[in-house]
């Protein structure tokens, strides 16, 4: 298809990608075999049959147990490298990738093994693929603020390998304000900041407001429900805040891809762009997400170029590096 070829050829930054969400069933089996782990599923098809999510909770119930196959630094390298090869095919030239250290340290894997494995893939991506890649440490919001703070302290020896911190996992009952102190400390330590704001209940707009007015994060992940409040949209636009939307993910964990909201933000001149979130689980990498949104919303090439330009404008690049991409 013309559209798919155009999108794949369009240089873009991916800013909302969970490395643990790139674990394809084939790699899951390979890592399980290497680590002597017996999986409940016997085939790739059996694994895929468990991907019938209806909401975030049912997704996370599949997502976290799958991570048991990730044991050694080598495993984390293999996972990130497989993603970066796919990213290259998708026209990604810059990737800021989330990782969830607490999902690993809480089951006995060392922080050092997680980060050194991922870091090796980052370094190789630059030299072999020409992709600039960065790591963003995400705190699990359904864990305590104290656990997040001790994870931040664990990360400090590796701060030169981590560009920023984020907040993910189950949002219900875990507002941004719960982590105000952790994020204030992270900023003082020199990290950039972003937070997921995606629940569909009445709390969503309140969480977005907390991020903008109280936390002062540099980006918001998802955050499309901001369209409910035009004054907040104007504020976000004025600040040049980036919104990392994920159409295919939305259609899995909510009832639709939120094309209306995404396009409304695009038309309003807000820095919104398209990302893949957990591509191994949600049926497509970043180019598939651009195509799905374009087909759903009837976007033309100018719109797609604008989305890609927004991905660089919202990326955590130095002005010099950004200018190379725009
Ligand atoms: C996630 Cl879709 C989604 N939402 C919240 N946290 C996550 N971590 C990985 N994928
Ligand atoms: Zn996400």
TrEMBL record:
InterPro entries on file: A_deaminase_dom, ADE, Ado/ade_deaminase, Metal_Hydrolase
Name of this protein: Adenine deaminase
Cofactor(s) of this protein: Zn(2+)
Claim: Acyltransferase is one of the keywords in the record: no
Amino-acid positions noted as binding substrate in the UniProt annotation, renumbered to this chain: 278
MF (Gene Ontology): hydrolase activity
Enzyme's top EC category: hydrolase
Binding of Zn(2+), residues: 16, 18, 196, 277
Organism: Microbacterium amylolyticum
Family recorded in the similarity comment: Belongs to the metallo-dependent hydrolases superfamily. Adenosine and AMP deaminases family. Adenine deaminase type 2 subfamily.
One Pfam match: A_deaminase
Important for catalytic activity (site feature) positions: 222
NCBIfam families: aden_deam (TIGR01430)
Key word Hydrolase present: yes
Protein role: Catalyzes the hydrolytic deamination of adenine to hypoxanthine. Plays an important role in the purine salvage pathway and in nitrogen catabolism.
Keywords on record: Hydrolase, Metal-binding, Nucleotide metabolism, Zinc
Residue ranges occupied by any Adenosine deaminase domain in the UniProt entry: 11-326
Lineage, top ranks: Bacteria, Bacillati, Actinomycetota, Actinomycetes, Micrococcales
């Amino acid at each position: 298809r013309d559209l798919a070829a155009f999108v794949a050829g369009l240089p873009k930054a991916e800013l909302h990608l969970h490395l643990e969400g790139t674990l394809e069933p084939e790699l899951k089996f390979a890592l399980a075999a290497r680590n002597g782990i017996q999986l409940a599923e016997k085939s790739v098809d059996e694994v895929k049959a468990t991907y019938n999510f209806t909401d975030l909770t049912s997704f996370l119930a599949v997502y976290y147990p799958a991570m048991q196959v990730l044991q050694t630094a080598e495993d984390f390298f293999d996972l990130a490298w497989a993603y970066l090869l796919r990213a290259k095919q998708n026209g990604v030239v810059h990737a800021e990738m989330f990782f969830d250290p607490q999902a690993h340290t809480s089951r006995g894997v060392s922080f050092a093994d997680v980060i050194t494995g991922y870091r090796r893939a980052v370094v190789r991506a630059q030299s072999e693929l020409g992709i600039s890649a960065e790591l963003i440490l995400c705190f699990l919001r359904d864990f305590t603020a104290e656990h997040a703070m001790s994870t931040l302290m664990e990360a400090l020896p590796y701060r030169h390998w981590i560009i920023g911190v984020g907040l993910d996992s189950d949002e219900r009952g875990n507002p941004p304000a719960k982590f105000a102190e952790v994020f204030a400390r992270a900023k003082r330590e020199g990290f950039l900041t972003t937070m997921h704001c995606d629940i569909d209940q009445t709390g969503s707009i309140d969480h977005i407001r907390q991020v903008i007015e109280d936390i002062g994060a540099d980006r918001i992940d998802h955050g499309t429900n901001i369209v409910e409040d035009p004054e907040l949209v104007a504020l976000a636009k004025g600040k040049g805040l980036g919104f990392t939307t994920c159409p295919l993910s939305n259609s899995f964990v909510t009832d639709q891809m939120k094309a209306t909201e995404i396009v409304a933000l695009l038309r309003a001149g807000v820095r919104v762009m398209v990302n893949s979130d957990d591509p191994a689980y949600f049926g497509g990498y970043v180019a598939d997400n651009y195509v799905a949104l374009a087909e759903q919303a009837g976007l033309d090439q100018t719109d797609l170029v604008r989305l890609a330009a927004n991905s660089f404008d919202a990326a955590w690049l130095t002005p010099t590096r950004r200018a190379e991409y725009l």
